[in-house]
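Deviation from plan, reported transparently: inosinic acid complex.
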Amino acid sequence: MENMDKDIQQVLLTEEQIRSKVEELGKILTEEYADKNPVVVGVLKGVVVFFADMVREMDFPCQIDFMWISSYAGSNSAEMKMVKDVSANLEGRHVVILEDIFDTGNSLDFTYHHLLSKEPASLKICTFLDKPERRKPGVRVQADYTGYVIPNEFVVGYGLDYDEKYRNLPYIGVLKREVYEK
Ligand code: IMP
Ligand code: MG
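Because the crystal trials were delayed, the predicted structure below was used instead.
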């Protein structure tokens, strides 16, 4: 990944660290959902890489679905708009939300309450990364399963972008300052 590696200041999580955590989370979810035929909902777009890895570590029948949300005015806005809702009927179903990163919590707060209004039998959140230092005070929603808690740094790779780039980087890294300041 030479063309993108040069923009990375520091590797935060290697491919190996990512793989072992995904395996661990997959085992936990398999115990929880083995006989529940849940709907696994991914929040686009950042989740795509984690989602594809996670579902292959889930050893149980499940349905997959996607929601696509974005913030109105940049990622600091608390106001979210829904680009695409889930297609499945979630009423009475066990639902698990997969997210790439739990940052301010605006996205997960919106997603959680939106899906809760569809009256699922249960609703849980699994996030790969968590930046608790960034959480907005009003956000009460919590993750049920967390991969890695990371420091307050802007990271890219493994689905996460800067200006829609670097999502296809196979590891998670901190971008060099000069990339932002270009
Ligand atoms: P929220 O602030 O918890 O609502 O997170 C909103 C979205 O911001 C996430 O789903 C990511 O797409 C994006 N985001 C938050 N932190 C980072 C980061 O460190 N790198 C890349 N994207 C991020
Ligand atoms: Mg983003």
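The longest strand covers residues 63-71. We consider this an acceptable substitute for the interim report.
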